[in-house]
């Protein structure tokens, strides 16, 4: 392929997208870990282009904000003149005056295109030495798409938009995918002659094809091998369809890389996630964002990981985790909740009904069940008893708890932060730890048990509890009387 001085890429993202019925701009709707526009940009940036320009108008500021973290992208504002032709015209006008290469035009709502498809389109365009080459596809139901109308010899004659098509033209199954390569000089010349005499009153980019043909120049069309890659997104139904196609593609890619996906139909993996060989994904699992999963780890079933790191050989079952780090050989779940800043060292365990937030759990340490650990540092070899709570919030500020190596705590402990438990210390069941515990000490908070006889009869008279207590006392008296008779 030619070097990047010969290619400019223009992405159309100015449309309102009314059929989405959403306050969010259409091109910013997410699928597979990126927005629709993000997928198009990601694909485009794999090509050797001198410039990538995105044309915006509707919800302009929100789209521009979404582009801020993407390097090498220039924004073009569309004016009051509507239509894809006008959008491209403004983008082309902003190219260097001496640019005479090819212009690749993409749509910001066609997220399934792959780099290989576009590279092949460019190569065929240049090899054929034509003025324009468009990508087409054949659909069972072409409703809503522009139709590619060919001459008797099979060459491209024009493109007719769906709303402007006659009955015969509407019956054509070959559609325009909204992907074009133009020679820059021919594109500039033709756009200057495009009018608005159509059902929409817009400047159609597709009219460039007709004008080129009328002037005797050649236009080629390359049919996509898989028509699905050309599908645009105009409403929520098409959004879900595109997401399913993309996800199936991603899952297959990882399966071919050595990942076991037990049930592809219920597994969702973002395009931004990374999985290693011999990872196993069990049903109903979502691997989202920038999540990375190392070799030999097992994730699922019923698990959602967002922007997490999972180490080699780790096991994560029935867990919801965000921005968490799970070390090699660590185990999580079932029914665990890891919030931002949760870090498990190698071999650590977070068990059933445990929530961890902004805390570090040391190597081999265990939080087995029914616990909340927040703003805490736990050393190595620690075992927290069932029902442990780190009380980290005093209604104004979050405070930290520090638990040293080899600490073993009793069940139902509350650690009132800020507090430090020294290495090797022990705590008794039901302890409320308000003061630092020295290394190797036993911490107890024991008070004598006090029973107030008759409290329910006095304070809850007539309730079910009072009636049950009376029945129990009567039964006890009867049992005592029977025992006395036996003794005599």
Brief digest:
With 488 residues, the chain is an alpha/beta fold.
What key attributes describe this structure?
twelve-stranded parallel sheet, nine-stranded parallel sheet, elongated
Count of alpha/pi helices: 10
What distance lies between the first and last C-alpha atoms, to the nearest angstrom? 110 Å
Contiguous low-pLDDT stretches (5 residues minimum) are: none
Look at the helices and sheets and give the structural class: alpha/beta
State the assembly state of the protein chains.
single chain
Q: Let me know the average pLDDT.
A: 94
What is the radius of gyration computed over CA atoms, rounded to a whole number of angstroms?
Answer: 33 Å
Shape: elongated
| Number of beta-strand segments | 37
| Main pleated-sheet profile | 12 strands, parallel
Helix content: 10-25%
Name the beta content range.
25-35%
SSE topology:
Layout: E1 7-13, E2 30-31, E3 34-35, H1 36-44, E4 51-56, H2 60-67, E5 73-77, H3 84-93, E6 102-107, H4 115-128, E7 132-138, E8 147-150, E9 156-160, H5 167-170, E10 174-183, H6 184-191, H7 207-214, E11 219-223, H8 236-256, E12 260-261, E13 267-269, E14 274-275, E15 280-281, E16 285-288, E17 292-293, E18 298-299, E19 303-306, E20 309-310, E21 315-316, E22 319-322, E23 325-326, E24 331-332, E25 336-338, E26 343-344, E27 349-357, E28 360-361, E29 366-374, E30 376-378, E31 389-391, E32 401-403, E33 414-416, E34 419-421, E35 426-427, E36 432-433, E37 442-443, H9 455-459, H10 464-487
Parallel strand pairs: 1-4, 1-6, 4-5, 7-11, 12-15, 13-16, 14-17, 15-18, 16-19, 17-20, 18-21, 19-22, 20-23, 21-24, 22-25, 23-26, 24-27, 25-27, 26-28, 27-29, 28-30, 30-32, 31-33, 32-34, 33-36, 35-37
Antiparallel strand pairs: 2-3, 6-10, 7-10, 8-9
Helix pairs in contact: 3-6, 6-7
């Amino acid at each position: 392929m030619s070097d990047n001085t010969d290619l400019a890429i223009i992405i159309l993202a100015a449309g309102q997208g009314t059929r989405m019925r959403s306050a969010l701009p259409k091109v910013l709707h997410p699928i597979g870990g990126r927005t629709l526009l993000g997928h198009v940009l990601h694909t485009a940036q794999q090509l050797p282009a001198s410039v990538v320009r995105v044309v915006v108008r509707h919800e302009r500021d929100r789209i521009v904000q979404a582009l801020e973290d993407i390097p090498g992208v220039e924004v073009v504002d569309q004016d009051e003149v509507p239509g894809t032709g006008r959008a491209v015209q403004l983008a082309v006008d902003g190219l260097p005056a001496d640019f005479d290469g090819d212009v690749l035009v993409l749509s910001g709502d066609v997220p399934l295109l792959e780099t290989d498809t576009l590279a092949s389109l460019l190569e065929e365009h240049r090899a054929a030495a034509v003025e324009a080459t468009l990508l087409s596809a054949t659909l069972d139901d072409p409703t809503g798409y522009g139709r590619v109308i060919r001459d008797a010899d099979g060459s491209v004659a024009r493109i007719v938009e769906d709303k402007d098509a006659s009955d015969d033209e509407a019956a054509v199954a070959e559609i325009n995918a909204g992907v074009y390569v133009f020679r820059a000089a021919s594109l500039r010349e033709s756009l200057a002659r495009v009018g608005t005499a159509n059902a929409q009153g817009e400047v159609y980019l597709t009219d460039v094809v007709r004008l080129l043909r009328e002037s005797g120049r050649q236009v080629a069309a390359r049919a996509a091998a898989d028509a699905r890659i050309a599908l645009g997104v105009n409403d929520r139904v098409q959004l879900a369809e595109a997401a399913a196609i993309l996800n199936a593609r991603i899952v297959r890619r990882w399966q071919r890389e050595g990942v076991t996906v037990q049930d592809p139909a219920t597994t969702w993996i973002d395009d931004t996630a990374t999985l290693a060989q011999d990872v196993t994904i069990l049903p109903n699992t979502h691997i989202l964002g920038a999540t990375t999963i190392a070799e030999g780890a097992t994730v699922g079933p019923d698990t959602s990981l967002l922007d997490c790191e999972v180490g080699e050989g780790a096991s994560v079952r029935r867990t919801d985790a965000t921005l968490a780090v799970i070390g090699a050989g660590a185990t999580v779940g079932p029914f665990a909740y890891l919030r931002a800043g949760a870090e498990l060292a190698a071999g650590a365990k977070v068990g059933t009904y445990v929530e961890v937030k902004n805390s570090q759990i040391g190597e081999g340490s265990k939080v087995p069940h029914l616990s909340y650990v927040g703003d805490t540092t736990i050393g190595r070899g620690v075992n927290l008893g069932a029902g442990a709570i780190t009380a980290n919030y005093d209604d104004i500020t979050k405070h930290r708890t520090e638990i040293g190596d080899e600490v073993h705590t009793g069940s139902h402990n509350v650690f009132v932060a800020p507090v430090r438990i020294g290495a090797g210390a022990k705590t008794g069941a039901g302890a409320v730890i308000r003061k630092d515990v020295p290394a190797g000490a036993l911490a107890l908070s024991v008070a004598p048990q006090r029973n107030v006889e008759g409290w329910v009869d006095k304070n809850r008279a007539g309730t079910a509890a009072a009636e049950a207590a009376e029945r129990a006392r009567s039964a006890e008296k009867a049992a005592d009387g029977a025992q006395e008779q036996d003794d005599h």
